[in-house]
Design brief:
five-stranded parallel beta sheet; Fum_R/Succ_DH_flav-like_C_sf; four-stranded mixed beta sheet; steroid dehydrogenase activity, acting on the CH-CH group of donors; alpha/beta; 19 helices; oxidoreductase
């Protein structure tokens, strides 16, 4: 086998976004030797791109806010499919995690009386998002990197070595998890992006924090790292994925010019007063308030506008309905011929706020449109449309510890599932990373403390991982040789067209057939050149992951015959309470159909755990009746029958 560099740690964290960094800090604070591996530069992750803010019920702007209101909003946003335990922990712990960041040096925007300011966002009853202008993620990552440096300095003082307990391996891609003879995690295998040299980590606990899957779709706000690696690594190691049919299309991505199509326009624009209009100049969202939200949103423009100033006596604007509702509404407006010239709708902040104020509150948006589209958002409206943004589905984990069903394998952040149900509320990801990143780090530390014998990776698995990684360099053995960029473009187009915002059974079946054909072609993927910084090779390896994830999404979407949150079936347009109780679990299919290059997956139904009674009691029975079966509601104190 080719030469491989080897390292031993107690906890290996794969991913250096908010979730990975918070997990690594927690494990290191327990005194464990912790490695952080990331395929991008250290500091370049999706968390850095987060604009709008971090949701936490601190009640600084409206003291009616509380963890109970945040919990209710999160469950409503997810249409009651969320892991209620995760939603509970998240709502209760998010404020402490935000405060903690300030103790580590973060500086959030302030209210006039000096408290952390909070802004409105879709689906949140009260202003709740702690923010730093529209560059919140940058401040969060900067702060956690600073915390990591502080911990390394403490280690240096004690041991003379900055990296004694915490080391970062940047631009290093993990291609396979390693397990021992009993199926427990034993480490990971990967390569340095710059040199192409192999690297093997030995660790009894691995935390996956690799983010999302957006690069499987053509129009996306996500950048090149989001190829679903963690999802696929977990599947191949024996973990389950949950809720993979739920993919969030953010309603407002840029639609023009084509080179920047999909880049995000933060929901903060609407939170701060921006409104959506169609080509006729109508504020069309008033026509799209679904029955389940009737009574909670303003019915007239006057009331909606008054709400920005007086939230006690007015209802919120429907421009701030949860993202799935707004994305579907925009889709309909465009389809019915009321779209903007480039196939979107208009987002107008220019007519609603002085230019200086727009530049102060939304500096990144101002520059983004000026530089990329030559549009001055202080003078004219933006053209926007839906873009693939976030995956609610992910690795199925224990809510309290983040452990998957594979011993020693943990997951957190966007690559973990459950927390957001069928649709994530804006701002709930950054808080999710902080709450569950910490919990996964602690979960991994507790697990390591209980391990009696360090697991040893199966040597044949390490050799197979190396062989698989080198396969694209040996096209002769693989037939004609497929170009990874061509395959990727075909996959993205197909996922966008068939597995996008609106789905049907026949489209899902066609998608699965097309994925089957791509699976065959990916065996023949061939790259030129050598292992030193070779992006074509990197993409060829990522394709395996994207195909597995694509199959998980399409199979789950075909199985769920209802519409809910980020999964809309034109052939099954309504919510079905029977489906609320059911989760779809995706696992590696070991039933005689296995394929070593892109292992096949199988989707199974499972019952969701019933919500604890004290949490159920936080909702009015009449509201729950829109989602639950009568039998489930007998546990409600208002006495469902
Ligand atoms: P990331 O921050 O993406 O980190 C993933 C890490 O995994 C990276 O370091 C990557 O290099 C690494 N990685 C991946 N695969 C491998 C591999 N095979 N080997 C090694 N390393 C690997 N959410 C909010 O709550 N509020 C917002 O305002 C907000 N705004 C957003 C704006 C944009 C433009 C985008 C794209 C998202 C936004 N989100 C927002 C969502 C939120 O930013 C993400 O969901 C969140 O940052 C994901 O964090 P993470 O730690 O799970 O993953």
């Amino acid at each position: 086998m080719t030469e491989t560099e080897r390292h031993e740690y107690d906890v290996l964290v794969i991913g250096a976004g908010g979730a990975g960094l918070r997990a690594a800090i927690a494990a290191r604070e327990r005194g464990l030797r912790t490695a952080i591996v990331c395929k991008s530069l250290f500091g370049k992750a999706h968390t850095v791109m987060a604009e709008g803010g971090c949701a936490a019920a601190m009640g600084n702007v409206n003291d009616n806010d509380s963890w109970q209101v945040h919990f209710r909003d999160t469950m409503r946003g997810g249409k009651f499919l969320n892991s209620w335990r995760m939603a509970e922990l998240h709502a209760k712990e998010a404020p402490d995690r935000v405060w903690e960041l300030e103790t580590w040096g973060a500086l959030f925007d302030r209210t006039p009386d000096g408290r952390i300011s909070q802004r409105n966002f879709g689906g949140h009853t009260y202003p709740r998002l702690a923010h730093v202008g529209d560059r919140t993620g940058l401040e969060i990552i900067r702060t956690m990197q600073q915390r990591i440096v502080a911990l390394q300095q403490a280690d240096h003082t004690e041991t003379g070595d900055y990296e004694a307990r915490l080391r970062v391996f940047a631009e290093c891609t993990v291609t396979e998890l390693l397990t021992d003879d009993d199926g427990a995690v034993a480490g990971a295998f990967g390569y340095w992006r710059e040199s192409g040299r192999f690297i093997e980590f030995s660790a009894p606990a691995v935390v996956l924090a690799t983010g999302g899957i957006g690069k499987s779709f053509q129009v996306t706000s996500n950048s090149w790292e989001y190829t679903g690696d963690g999802h696929a690594l977990a599947l191949r190691a024996g973990a389950n994925l949950i809720d993979m049919e739920f993919v969030q299309f953010h309603p407002t991505g840029m639609v023009w010019p084509p080179s920047v199509k999909g880049i995000l326009v933060t929901e903060g624009v609407r939170g701060d007063g921006g409104v959506l209009k169609n080509a006729d100049g109508d504020r069309f969202m008033f026509g799209y308030v679904p029955d389940v939200f009737k009574g909670q949103y303003a019915q007239t423009e006057d009331e909606a506008d008054r709400w920005y100033e007086d939230q006690e006596n007015n209802r919120r604007t429907p421009d701030l309905l949860p993202r799935d509702e707004v994305a579907r509404a925009i889709n309909t407006e465009v389809k019915e011929g009321r779209g903007s010239p480039h196939g979107g709708v208009y987002l107008d902040i220019a007519s609603r706020m002085p230019a200086d104020e727009i530049r102060r509150r939304l500096p990144s948006m101002y520059h983004q449109f000026k530089e990329l589209a030559d549009v001055d958002i202080t003078a004219e409206p933006m053209e926007v449309g839906p873009t693939c943004h976030y995956v609610m589905g992910g690795i199925d984990v224990d809510p309290d510890t983040g452990q998957s069903r594979v011993p020693g394998l943990f997951a957190t952040g966007e690559c973990a599932g459950g927390m957001h149900g069928s649709n994530r509320l804006g701002g709930n990801s950054l808080s999710d990373l902080l709450v569950f990143g910490r919990r996964a780090g602690l979960g991994a530390a507790d697990y390591v403390a209980g391990v009696r014998r360090r697991p040893a990776a199966r040597r044949e698995a390490v050799e197979a991982a190396a062989e698989m990684t080198l396969a694209p360099f040996a096209p002769a053995a693989h037939g004609a040789g497929e170009n990874p960029y061509t395959l990727h473009a075909e996959l993205q187009r197909m996922m966008n067209d068939l597995v996008g915002i609106i789905r049907t059974e026949s489209e899902m079946t066609e998608a699965l057939d097309r994925l089957g054909a791509l699976r065959e072609r990916v065996r023949d993927v061939a790259v030129e050149g050598h292992r030193q910084y070779n992006p074509g090779w990197h993409l060829a390896l990522d394709l395996r992951n994207m195909l597995m994830v694509g199959e998980a999404v399409a199979s789950s979407a075909r199985t769920r015959t209802e519409s809910r949150g980020g999964h809309t079936r034109a052939d099954h347009p309504g919510l079905d309470p029977e489906w609320r109780r059911r989760a779809l679990l995706t696992a590696r299919d070991r039933d005689g159909r296995d394929d070593v290059v892109v292992p096949r997956v199988a989707v199974e139904q499972a019952e969701r755990a019933p919500m604890r009674e004290d949490l159920l009691a936080l909702f009015d029975l009449t509201e729950l009746e829109k989602y639950y079966t009568a039998a489930e509601l007998t546990a409600h104190p208002q006495g469902g029958t």
